[in-house]
Structures are given as C-alpha cells and as structure tokens.
Amino acid sequence: RRGLGVAAGPPNTRQLREAEEAAPVFQYAGKAARRKDRVFVWGFSYSGALGIPSFVRPDASWKKPRRIQTTPYRLETEEKISSAACGYGFTLLASNTRDITKVWGMGLNKDSQLGFQRSRRDQTKGYEYVLEPSPIPLPLEKPQQTRVLQVSCGRAHSLVLTDSEGVFTMGNNSYGQCGRKVVEDEIYSGSHLIHQLKEFDSEVVQVVCGQDHSLFRTKKGSVYACGWGADGQTGLGHYNITSVPTKLHGDIAGVNIIQVSSYGDCCLAVSDEGDVFGWGNSEYLQLASVTETTQVNVPRHLPFKIGKVKEAACGGTGNVVLTEEGNVFVWGYGILGKGPNLIETAVPEMIPPSLFGWSDFSPDIRVAHVRCGLSQFAALTNRGELFVWGKNLRGCLGTGRMEDQYFPWRVTVPGEVLDVACGVDHMVSMVRSF
Amino acid sequence: VSVLGIGHGNKLLTDLYNCHLAKVYIVGGLFGKATDDFSDTGNLVEKTTFDHITREKLERILAVIQGTNQKALLMYSNIDMKTQEAYELAVKGLIRPMGKSPPIITAVRCLQFALPEFQLEIHCLHETQQYLRKMVHEIGLELKSSAVCTQVRRIRDGVFTVNDALPRTQWNLQSIQEAIRNCQLKVETELEKTL
C-alpha cells in the first residue's frame, strides 16, 4: 500500500533498485545438481534391442507401436552403465558395480545370447525376445567382489569380460565362437549354458565379437581367437573353425597390441607403436593394400603412411582408423563418408576435419574415438559431440531422417556423449547430462 | 557497424542482402536476473542464484547451441544431401540458407566470463535483436539460473568490419569517398563468389 507522503507517478531509478533488491531470489540449481550419466538408444525397435517395451507393445490405448526410433531416446536404467555393446538385433548393458546384477540384456534371444530369461507364462521355457533390460545371471564365484569391465556382442553370441574371473561366453556355439567344443545338434534356444574362459597367457583386457568369431586381447599384448574361420578371420593360418581360444602369430607375433576391433568378417589390430594389422575378409578391399586375395588368414601389417594410429574400428565392408593427430581415415567399400562419389578405396582416405566441427573459430576440436557398426560409422569429438555417417538402416543413424548419410552428420543428444556402441540397425550411447 | 548505400550502392545493397552473409555481434549478459523483455532495462520478473555457474558449463551449452544450429543451417539451405556437391560445400563450410529462414547461429564463442557478467561473440544469419536477447535468456535457463542481455553490438555485417567503419568524427565527404573505394573491391568479390 502506498503510504502518505510518497510521490505518485512512475517509479524512479532508486525505487526500482530498491524493489529489485527486495525481490526474492530463486534457486533452481539444487544441491545435488551433479551431472548424471544416462543411456540413449535409437534405431529399430521391434527386436526389443532398444529396451523400450512400449514401442513394441504399447501400454496405453493412445500409444501406437513405434517400429523405428529415428532420434535418441532416453532409456531408464537402474544402475550407471559403464559399457554397452550392440549385437545383431540385441544389446548388452553392463555396470562395473559390485552388486549382484551387473549385466542386462535386451532384444533377440533365440540363441540365448542374453542368457536364460525365464518366461513368466511357462517356467520351463525362456523368452525369445526380451523387450526391456533384464538381468543376466552370471555364474560368478565371488558375485559381490568381481566387476564386469566390458561386454561385446556378435551375430548370435556375447562375451562378458570380468576383472578377476576371466571371460564368460553365451549364445550360439555352432562355430565354436563361445570358446567351447561344438556339440552336434545342440539346441541354443532356452539354454542355461554360460561358459567361462580363463586359459590365456595373462589377464584378458579386451573382448571383441565378430559376426561368428571372438577375439581376446591380453595384458601382454597378444591376441587370441576362436570361432568361424572361413574368411580367415581367426587369423590362425587356416580356414577351419576353432573352438578353443588360440593365440595368433603372423605379423603380430611379439608385437604389443593395444586395441583390437571387428564386427563382420574382417579384423584390425593396433600396436603400441601406432601400426595397423589386419586379417580376415578382404572382398571389399579392406586388406587390398597388402594382398590381392580375398581372404587373409594370418595377421598382416598394413603399410599405411598416415601417421601413428591410435584407434581402429572394423565394420562389415568398411574400416576406419583414428590417428594420434586426431585425423580420421576410412577405406573399404560402401558409404565411406566422403560424399556419394567415394564408394570404394583400398588406401585410407582422410575425412576433412571441418566436417567434425573444426574451423578457425574452434581449432581445438579433435575426434577422440571412432566406432563402427555393420554399415555405419560413428565418431566422438573431444567436446562430446557425436557424428555418424553410413547406411541408415532402419533409422540406426539417429539423425531423425531415414536417408543414408554420405558425410559426417551431428546427432543431437542432450548431453556430452561419452561412448557409443553401433549395431546393425540400432545404436546405444552413454551420455553425461549437462 | 551499419551499412549505408549511396546512389548505385542501393542496388548493391539488395544484392548483398541476397548473399546471406553472416553478421557478428558482441553480446554482453548478466546472470541472476530475468526480465520481461530479456534486457536489463525491462521489468524484473525474478532473481536467481548463479554461483554454481562456471565457464566450463557455459561453454558446454554454447557447444550444444552451435550443434543444433548447424543442423538447421543444413536443412534450410535446401541442398540435396545425397550429392557430391553437398559434401564439398559442407567440407568448405559454405552451406547456408539462400532464402528466407528463421534466425540461425553459425558460431558462438565466450569472450569474457566474470560472474555475474559474461560476453559472447555470436555469428548469425537472419537474426533480430530480440532473438539475440532471447538467446541470452535461454542460456541462463539452461544453466539453471537466469540471464539478461546488457549489450548488443554489431561488429561485422557481411564483409564490412569495425575496421572499415567510420566513427562519428569522420562523417565528412572525404572519408566517405575513401571508405567507399576501399570497400568496393571486397563487395565485388563477394558478390561474384555467391551469384
């Protein structure tokens, strides 16, 4: 109420200032306003690989089934996810917690690649499709101490790497990809069998699944392989299947390998000195720089003159490497990322950094990681931005459009992207909120 | 920087407008207040805390803004993404909308940061002053606080920068003629490049 003796008219500056100072201050940033880690998924949802059941079986009458999720969608998880892997129609999420449940799986489970998921309707049978992240019980000796470091998924099998109990494998084993002897006429659907592998020269630090084979990298820098070998992807010098993880030699004998990658039938390895080695399928010119044959069954050094290589990723028909300087090189066949005119090359070609946001305005943008799906590529920059390119199979690129992407395109994710896993027709990313 | 055309220059002005070149602004902001017209002279709506804001958080938000605007840039430029042409333009960074479009920001950078004040350099297309003020307000909201815009200063309009501009003391015939001669070359090259 205006008191007597106070001037009428528009408030002068002093009165405004006083009113401002007297105004209440609101606090929107709560005490626990820390950045949260979240999981975002996108791509084909009917296999259940996205882990959102309402896309497949709508739980409200107004909701319609969503076959394809074209942009990143948040997936609620019970725990903080530290590692994710996309297989052919299924996904594994792992947390490095000490709690009993460390790995969750969703998607296709016809070969028990997600372990045994007991069906509620019939207790003796398992689910063939798992629509939401469901715990995978691992036969751990010390379930409250062991941590899961990393997971990897192939076409129909999965590998789980732990810090002290070796590697657990599950899923299809018709080619020995699970590291155990092939049992004739084995029925994989509804199987409870999870195999444990511990016989390596040192601790396994990375597991990689190809389409039907498995690669293991140990602390000492050696690589072991098992599974299907018709394209030489096991790198053991023959084209037969291998059912026990066996050490690779060839050009990587004695070399300290720091990273291995595979997703289709071709494999790449990076040494600590920045050299790249490859073996497996070369029908798409992936290894044409050293040989004209279409299959290479022994690791061969790829004599690229592109600088020290930091990371490599293998796709179905194309490969990508990241050098120490932060440059991205692609080669192989398919949509490689340099426009529609570049369909195949045997020699790595660099993708101009300006496509990843580098400019005179922001000269310290660098690509930090590269990842490969079956026919798409992903790159993460040091600012936490995600760029994708390649075939947009069932919306797996996450760009919001259904067209293929011929050069790197930014995916809008509300947060800083920490890591991304690429599959055949879906992708999963771990994001830290702002 | 305000561009004026004399005589024949008027026609050139329309051509320059059709080039759709970016303008650069220095925008000053203040955290902690929210007003109805997003500037510091409007009526106060509310005050908020801002001690939790760091330069790092601000730069993260700026990166997101740049990202979303990049996509808008490519979409409004009406180029078929499947062509080799589109790839080449994207590499050179020359993709930009050639027709009418809502305001798009091509680049943002934080110049100064001293709580509660901060200064940004913004490169944009087809913007309005209100849009820039609103941008400051939204940055405040994203950082779980609020912000008002204290200063908007255009330092570049297409090819004309502050260095070419004449201060008030030099508004006489001589200097104007000189300035026109100096800028002629730049204008011509730019027009040739685009049209």
TrEMBL record, chain A:
Keywords in alphabetical order: Membrane, Mitochondrion, Mitochondrion inner membrane, Repeat, Transit peptide
Single biological process term from Gene Ontology: mitochondrial fusion
The keyword ATP-binding is assigned to this record: no
Start and stop residues of the RCC repeats: 37-97, 101-164, 165-220, 221-273, 274-325, 384-433
RCC1-like domain boundaries: 35-316
Source domain of life: Eukaryota
Subunit structure: Forms a regulatory protein-RNA complex, consisting of RCC1L, NGRN, RPUSD3, RPUSD4, TRUB2, FASTKD2 and 16S mt-rRNA. Interacts with 16S mt-rRNA; this interaction is direct. Interacts with OPA1; this interaction is direct.
Role description: Guanine nucleotide exchange factor (GEF) for mitochondrial dynamin-related GTPase OPA1. Activates OPA1, by exchanging bound GDP for free GTP, and drives OPA1 and MFN1-dependent mitochondrial fusion. Plays an essential role in mitochondrial ribosome biogenesis. As a component of a functional protein-RNA module, consisting of RCC1L, NGRN, RPUSD3, RPUSD4, TRUB2, FASTKD2 and 16S mitochondrial ribosomal RNA (16S mt-rRNA), controls 16S mt-rRNA abundance and is required for intra-mitochondrial translation of core subunits of the oxidative phosphorylation system.
Protein's name according to its UniProt entry: RCC1-like G exchanging factor-like protein
Species this protein is from: Toxostoma redivivum (California thrasher)
UniProtKB/TrEMBL annotation, chain B:
Pfam families: TruB_N
GO molecular-function terms, A-Z: pseudouridine synthase activity; RNA binding
Domain called Pseudouridine synthase II N-terminal: residue spans: 3-128
InterPro entries, A to Z: PsdUridine_synth_cat_dom_sf (IPR020103), PsdUridine_synth_N (IPR002501), Trub2 (IPR039048)
Domain of life: Eukaryota
GO BP: pseudouridine synthesis; RNA processing
Family in the record: Belongs to the pseudouridine synthase TruB family.
Entry protein name: TRUB2 synthase
Source lineage: Eukaryota, Metazoa, Chordata, Craniata, Vertebrata
